[in-house]
Amino acid sequence: MHVSSGGVRGAKKSGRKPGFDADDVVAAALAEGIDTFTMSAVADRIGVVTGAIYRLFPSRDDLVVACLDTAAATLRLPGRDDDWASVLQLWADECWRVCEDFPGLSRLLYALPTAFTRIQHVLAAYSAAIERSGRSTAQAMFALDFLGDTVIASHMGIVAMRVVDADGATGWDRVRDALADGALMQPDDSWAERGTVDVKVGFIIKGLERDWPAL
After folding, report:
1. Mind listing the pLDDT tens digit for each residue in 20-58?
2. Is the separation of the CB atoms in 142 and 215 below 8 Å?
3. Rounded to an integer, what distance in angstroms lies between the CA atom of residue 75 and that of residue 78?
4. Contact, 140 vs 131, CB < 8 A?
5. What is the pTM of this model?
6. Helix (H, G, I), strand (E, B) or coil at 164
7. What is the dihedral of CA 192, 194, 198, 204, to 10 degrees?
8. Where does residue 103 rank: exposed (0-12), middle (13-18), buried (19+ CB within 10 A)?
9. How far is the CA of 35 from the CAs of 7, 28, 29, 119, in angstroms?
10. Which residues form the HTH tetR-type domain (predicted)?
């Protein structure tokens, strides 16, 4: 076998793979889906072996937490002079936006009991803004929880309406086909979009304008 100064003839060139860091891993996991990614799929997306991912994140749970923190970092905070109704509207808008921006998040938030612990600083900022309007901490947290649950649960249902099956039919299509003409509930475009969510949010805020629970 002839060995030249460049190495074994015909052998693959050796060398370091392109570098990657924790941010690259998080981005790959988010691209795979925050609720469904696997460590091997993340590694494949980056172009490294799975073991390399574990050197940065010892477990999948650690990577999930990093993904949640990345999503939480995008949440807008209320202004100091915002009234409580504007604060709650912003919270509802941000809950919707973050679920849209990070596919699978709404599902993960219900599947992972500790998910909300990653936004304690965000909840504290929103609660403080509502308390400046004369509400108690318990009342502020009730309103934030009520609206957050409403928006996130609604988003999860809307995602199911958008999913396309192997035949090219969406969840909305399947529901429409399953309901007979004249059924009490008839699907419309709002079932796959935000329209009904805004109605629910407005209803809750209007209700709080009339009465807050004594907490």
Report:
1. 999 999 999 999 999 999 999 999 999 999 999 999 999
2. yes
3. 10
4. yes
5. 0.84
6. strand
7. 60
8. middle
9. 46, 13, 9, 17
10. 32-67
